[in-house]
Amino acid sequence: MAVGQIRVQTENIFPIIKKFLYSEHDIFIRELISNAVDASQKIKTLSSIGEAKGDLGELRIDVSIDKENKTITIEDRGVGMTSEEVDKYLNQLAFSGAEEFLNKYKDANIIGHFGLGFYSAFMVSDKVDVYTKSYKDAPAAHWSCDGSPSFDLEQIEKEERGTKIVLHINSDSEEFLDNDKIRHKLEKFCKFLPIPIFFEDKQINNTEPIWTKKPSELTDEDYKNFYKELYPFGETPLFWIHLNVDYPFNLTGILYFPKIKQSYEIQKDKIQLYSNQVFVTDEVKDIVPEFLMLLHGVIDSPDIPLNVSRSYLQGDPNVRKINSYITKKVSDKLEEIFKNDRKSFEEKWESIGLFVKYGMITDDKFLEKAAKYFIMQDAKDEKAFYTIDEYKTTTEALQKNKDGKYVILYTTDPVQQDAYIKAAQAKDFKVVRFETIVDSAFINNMEMKWSDVQFTRVDADIVDNLIDKNENIDSVLSKEETEKLKSLFDIKVNGLNVTVDVKGLSAESAPVIATRPEFMRRMKDMGAVGGGMTSFYATMPDEVTLTVNGNHPIYETLLKEENKEQQEKQIHNLADLALLSQGLLKGSNLTEFINRSVELMK
Fold first, then answer.
1. Three-class SS of residue 475?
2. Rounded distance, CA 381 to CA 344, Å?
3. Is residue 101 within 8 Å of 42, Cβ to Cβ?
4. Is the CB of residue 494 less than 8 Å from the CB of residue 587?
5. Contact, 39 vs 162, CB < 8 A?
6. Which residues does residue 299 pair with via DSSP β-bridges, in sequence order?
7. Which of 86, 300, 415, 535 is close enough to 531 for a disulfide, judged by CB 3.0 to 4.6 Å?
8. Mean pLDDT, to the nearest integer, of 533-549?
9. Using only C-alpha atoms, what is the Rg of the chain?
10. Which of 168-172, 182-186, 294-298, 584-588 bottoms out in mean pLDDT, i.e. has the lowest?
11. What pLDDT does 529 receive?
12. 355: nearest Cα among 340, 374, 341, 336
């Protein structure tokens, strides 16, 4: 067996760094500014323990562009480096000065860990110059490298402590010599860094974002103003959750519940991830549970494991712990509002409901807690809401079927389904609203998870059959009259499979009621939206049952009509009216109905 050491050809390293170190070249701004922040934080730490003597002066970072000479300069007034430290830190790839400093000064607030960030400069530069003077009593140094494995290092005169990095921008990266572009990148990556950053003589960052403070120090206005800072054009959020934990992991942040008036307004990727106030990404999948990706805000954690580009999460138990912690905090907050101010909770339900339902579908632990504050809005009384337990108690006597399940009657469109809702309410049934884009999936999921519940849309059957109790009303029609009526209603409608059933309903019920089987309708609805296996159902004709109310007095007249053509037109119109109530009369069928109605009026 051979044992040896992997050999690295240094002349091949820089081409790899230039091309592949980071997926996006603009990341050099974040890396170099982060290094400058670290240098500033180091001198603060050293000064606080007496290792750095003298006046710290103004700690700030200045960024400037020289378009004529095609350079970008980043200058700090931090700890600086001696010639020996330059040789140690800049000439050794992946040797992290920040990591070494952290090992020595455990409580220092340092960003860097990998020792590669500085080399991102070569992704956009033909040459990099570093001018630096240490806080120690040592000569200043100048380091220069053109992207080859060779470098120049010499002593120079420099009055002020700190480091100045000059990037000589290459021809492929001259876009970064645009002031607006650099300002935009600084605002994106460095907006909340703890050391003041100046560009064009203006400070571009907020060094003390509110997530770094204690909740007790903040007012509601502070939280609202910070939301405006994050989302200048956003509406005032419903409420927020301040995250602040230091064990078993470090995590701070603010999560906001946005107002969502329409389901189509849902937007993901609105949560920004930071590490020690450095922007990392707005793709927080895995850290934040999927259903909470609809929230807005900021999460900051130095304990979230990231690769060298800080762009993608690596698998780690801490991520799962953080995920569970955020879920618990959100659930606790929702329960607190529900218990302490139910009216306010109900007023916000239009927006809150999306999060709650989405969470109940995707997270069983959340489902268990959310069942306490999940509410359903009454179809007619907009101020009436029921928890699942309240609905069961209210409907115990009337809405349990022969299998002992509670039947939750719901509407997806209170306007279109108004006649069906009124028919159900006439029997004292409770009908609730399920109108959002997540409701179809929610209903299917909850039927599997709640064994004692069955959801039935209010237009899924005639009102007498919505609660299956094997109870029937006798029809006043004779067998011959029933068969005749059935044959008269045997009409053909494009795109529909129509089945006719003549039943004895109450005389007050409609003469004809069109219904669609609950299962088939759900499959078609899901197929139209989701594709996959259910897309098969989307292409199938609608299954419709026309239930003819044999006890309605209109048939006493219609069955005696001697003008067969007139009789057929009137019967067809009754059928079309029923189909129209379900939104199933379209195109040429609708045109024929209109023309026929005009003829009958003549």
1. coil
2. 17
3. yes
4. yes
5. yes
6. 253, 273
7. 535
8. 71
9. 35
10. 584-588
11. 57
12. 374
More confident residue, 163 or 494: 163
Each residue's pLDDT tens digit, 202-222:
999 999 999 999 999 999 999
| The residue count for the chain | 602
pLDDT tens digits along 356-389? 998 999 888 899 999 999 999 999 899 999 999 9
Whether residue 149 is preceded by a cis peptide bond, meaning omega within 30 degrees of 0, is: no
403: its two tokens = 């299998």
Region 132-153 average pLDDT? 90
Average pLDDT over the chain reads: 84
| 172-193 mean pLDDT | 94
- For the structural domain made of 12-203, what CATH number should be given? 3.30.565.10
Q: 10 Å Cβ neighbour count for 473?
A: 15
CATH of the domain spanning 479-601: 1.20.120.790
Distance CA 241, CA 222 (A): 13
> What CATH architecture does domain 210-330 belong to?
2-Layer Sandwich (3.30)
Q: What amino acid is encoded at 139 in this protein?
A: P
Q: Please, where in the chain does CATH 3.30.230.80 lie?
A: 210-330
Closest CA to 505 of 553, 468, 567: 553
- Residues whose CB is less than 8 angstroms from the CB of residue 48 and which lie 6 or more positions away in sequence, other chains included: none
Q: What is the spatial distance between Cα 586 and Cα 592, in angstroms, rounded to a whole number? A: 10
The CA distance from 413 to 419, in Å, is 11
Query: Could you give the residue range(s) of every CATH 3.30.565.10 domain in the chain?
Result: 12-203
Domain with CATH 3.40.50.11260 in the chain: 374-466
Instruction: Kindly list the distances between the CA atom of residue 543 and the CA atoms of 414, 497, 519, 540, 556, in Å, as whole numbers in the listed order.
Output: 22, 5, 10, 9, 29
- The CATH class for the domain spanning 374-466 reads alpha beta
- The four Cα atoms 350, 355, 361, 363 give a dihedral, to 10 degrees, of -150
Alpha-carbon span 489 to 481, nearest angstrom: 12
Higher per-residue confidence, 282 vs 32: 32
- CA dihedral (19, 21, 23, 28) positive or negative: negative
Asked if 263 and 437 count as a contact pair (C-beta separation under 8 A), the reply is yes
Report the C-alpha gap between 329 and 535 in whole angstroms. Answer: 38
Stretch(es) of the chain classified as CATH 1.20.120.790: 479-601
Gap between the Cα atoms of 317 and 179, Å rounded: 42
H helices present in 363-462, as ranges: 364-370, 388-395, 418-426, 439-449
| Adjacency order of strands within the sheet including 251-257 | 239-245, 251-257, 296-300, 271-275, 278-281
3-state SS, one letter per residue, for 131-192: EEECCCCCCEEEEEECCCCCCEEEEECCCCCEEEEEEEECHHHHHHHCHHHHHHHHHHHHCC
